[in-house]
Write a structure and sequence with these properties.
about 675 residues; alpha/beta; Rossmann fold; Aminopeptidase; 4 domains; 7-stranded mixed beta sheet; 6-stranded parallel beta sheet; 27 helices
């Protein structure tokens, strides 16, 4: 075997070795004998190799081909290097993902195939590791683009306030390196604190690696330090500059809060990456930037650092994992002409979808753009999981909305009892098991449930009622006992689901580390048994939620607290009534005649009863009722949380008295 003479000597090669594992491995090791190579037999190790470079990687796929690991490891191979894929003669016929993968391998002109029976093998030549576009003018920067990016980052600190920078690129363009170089240079120039924020420390490792290369003391002494998105959002430490890496993997709500608080901030995003897509970020967050900081700037890195442009391995990876999938091109003037009655709602046959690459890309492209953490493994899941059904809404043959529904429940009595007792936890059945274990409804795992795991509307057609229309169709088409969903709770998303009849029955006690949100479970009953399930779950939630606000949910955003309190009264139980004496006591507080602590119990009952229905409160009045009365913060914390609205305890009490007075106007 030898590399075809028609191949570019500076290209990277995908070499497929098929047969029995031991035979494949033997051939791969012979071929890479003179190379700096690594063997990846555990896909979980792929992320630990990010930032490193190899001549060759031997990638195992006999037991499974992990799409995320494949995408990650391809980025560690230097220019002129090799990815040796070890695989069986034929992947499982049961996997549509692998069937498509095999098809793309066969169709590629840039893949070298080796059968284990071949004997004429030549040791692979060592990559020359020279790039035709190499700009060797500097020991610090890998390209002129990267130098310009560093200068743009530094200008965020030295230029006008409120002019954030959005730094974007595909993988391997030196984006994280630019962040690290800029951070090190700023500390050298006398700035004191640079905060690096990313979904995890592991993701930010490259930033710190390159900052340490230029200024190790800055990292060692904490001048350049790490904060998780949630910690940065809640603690709001002071800094000369905030560098947000992989912003696409952080919810827009948190990015918006950071943008509001910090006047000098950089958002870096990978456009097409195995770790999540930057397109949802590009579409949704740039609308926020336009509104809040219209003078924001952008910088895009085009040229790869480790390999050449138009690299065949990168292109194959993009195609196989749909890293560059985009939503459908829409008919002209669709927003003006679209009528929901003319939209076609349907399930999608996965085998048919596999034969239509354009439709597959359009379907997956919508999911990628809508969700901040879509990964290549999601493509494998939607094609191969027999419990997942695909739905779409089309208008004039263009896909304008998509959804994934996962079948849950229908678990036998014995296993349901073990799940309820905490003895077993089975794969899947996320909501059904949560209802059983967290809420204590054993029947939840026995009933049938349809969980809507993803729903997305074309970005050019959002806020036009299409999502609610599509969701209604999904619920009506279900024959399960109940339809469910679970997601990171925001007041905006809660309202969307509530409009179609979904009710909150569970809220997670802890925030997700990367999203900063609490997970919520919502249900919509479809049968008499489903109605009873929702009723029981709602009673449990209405009994516990008010008390949770004063301890584990004390930091829950007031707007979200209000959205959860504002579910229909008949679902949350009957509101308390107040005797004449109680009303008199409450009026005494409102009029400044009584202290807060002496009326605390009555005020708590009043807020819980009247707050959801009161239309006359200002946002500040509503917030103090939630932060002080329901969440039981001390006066100092109340003042801090409402900074800009009140300046101390006296103003807080005065505001609280006014708010209680307004609630009393409708109290029964």
């Amino acid at each position: 075997m030898s590399i075809p003479s028609t191949f570019n000597p500076e290209d990277r090669y995908l070499i497929v070795i098929s047969g029995e594992l031991n035979d494949c491995l033997g051939i791969a090791k012979k071929l890479t004998a003179n190379l700096e190579s690594i063997e990846l037999d555990d896909p979980k190790k792929a992320n630990t190799l990010l930032g490193q470079e190899f001549d060759a990687v031997i990638f195992h796929s006999h037991e499974c081909l992990d799409p995320n690991a494949f995408g990650a490891i391809a980025g560690t191979i230097r220019c002129g290097g090799y990815l040796l894929l070890l695989k069986p003669e034929n992947y499982s016929e049961n996997s549509l993902f692998l069937k498509r993968f095999d098809r793309l391998l066969d169709a590629s002109d840039n893949v070298v195939f080796i059968k284990t029976k071949e004997t004429a093998l030549t040791v692979l030549p060592k990559p020359n590791n020279l790039k035709t576009n190499k700009e060797s003018y500097s020991d610090i920067y890998a390209s002129l683009e990267q130098k310009h990016a560093v200068e743009a980052i530094i200008h965020v600190v030295k230029g006008h306030r409120r002019r954030p920078l959005v730094l974007s690129s595909d993988r391997g363009r030196g984006k994280s390196t630019a962040l690290g170089i800029a951070a090190a240079k700023l500390i050298e120039q006398g700035y004191d604190k640079i905060i690096v924020c990313a979904p995890s420390k592991k993701i930010a490792a490259m930033v710190f690696q390159h900052a340490s290369r230029l200024n190790p003391d800055a990292v060692k002494h904490g001048n350049i330090c790490f904060f998780s998105p949630d910690d940065l959002h809640r603690q709001k430490p002071t800094a000369d500059l905030i560098l947000v890496d992989e912003a696409a993997a952080i919810p827009v709500s948190i990015l918006t809060a950071l943008l509001t608080h910090y006047s000098r901030i950089v958002f870096a995003s990978t456009q097409h990456g195995y770790e999540g897509s930057g397109r949802g970020f590009s579409i949704n967050f740039k609308k926020v930037l336009d509104k809040q900081t219209p003078d924001w700037n952008s910088c895009h890195l085009n040229k790869p650092i480790r390999w050449n442009e138009n690299d065949s391995l990168e292109q194959f990876t993009f195609d196989a994992l749909l890293l560059d999938a985009e939503p459908s091109e829409l008919p002209q003037n669709i927003s003006e002409n679209l009528e929901l009655s003319q939209c076609e709602f349907s399930t999608i046959n996965k085998n048919d979808l596999l034969k239509d690459e354009v439709k597959l890309k359009a379907f997956f492209g919508l999911l990628v753009g809508a969700h901040y953490q879509t990964k290549p493994s999601d493509l494998m899941h939607l094609l191969d999981d027999n419990e997942t059904t695909l739905y779409c809404l089309e208008y004039e043959n263009a896909i304008i909305a998509v959804a994934l529904i996962i079948i849950e429940g229908r678990i036998d009595q014995s296993l349901s009892a073990d799940i309820f007792a905490g003895k077993r936890r089975i794969k899947g059945h996320l909501v059904a098991q949560s209802l059983s274990v967290n809420i204590g409804i054993e029947s939840a795992t026995k009933l049938s449930g349809d969980r809507i795991s993803r729903i997305a509307v074309h970005p050019e057609l959002q806020n036009q009622g299409i999502g609610s229309f599509f969701l209604t169709q999904l619920v009506e088409s279900s024959s399960a006992d109940y339809v469910s969903t679970s997601f990171g709770a925001t007041s905006h998303l809660l309202k969307f689901w509530q409009l179609v009849g979904f009710r909150t029955v569970y809220l997670g006690m802890k925030r997700d580390a990367s999203s900063g949100t609490h997970s919520v479970v919502m249900l919509n009953a479809k049968s008499p048994d489903g109605n009873e399930l929702v009723k029981q779950a709602q009673i449990n939630f209405s009994q516990n939620y008010p008390h949770l606000l004063s301890d584990p949910l004390r930091d829950l955003e007031p707007e979200l607290v209000f959205s959860l309190l504002s579910q229909p009264i008949d679902q949350l139980g009957h509101p308390p009534t107040f005797e004449a004496f109680s009303i008199k006591q409450l009026k005494g507080f409102a009029n400044g005649l009584r202290g807060y602590e002496n009326n605390l119990g009555l005020i708590w009952k009043l807020v819980l009863s009247e707050l959801p229905e009161n239309q006359f409160l200002t946002s500040s009045e509503r917030n103090i009722l939630i932060i002080k009365v329901l969440q039981n913060n001390n006066w100092q914390n109340v003042t801090q949380k409402m900074s800009g609205e009140i300046s101390g305890k006296k103003e807080a009490i005065d505001l609280l008295r006014v708010a209680v007075g307004k609630l009393l106007t409708n109290a029964k």
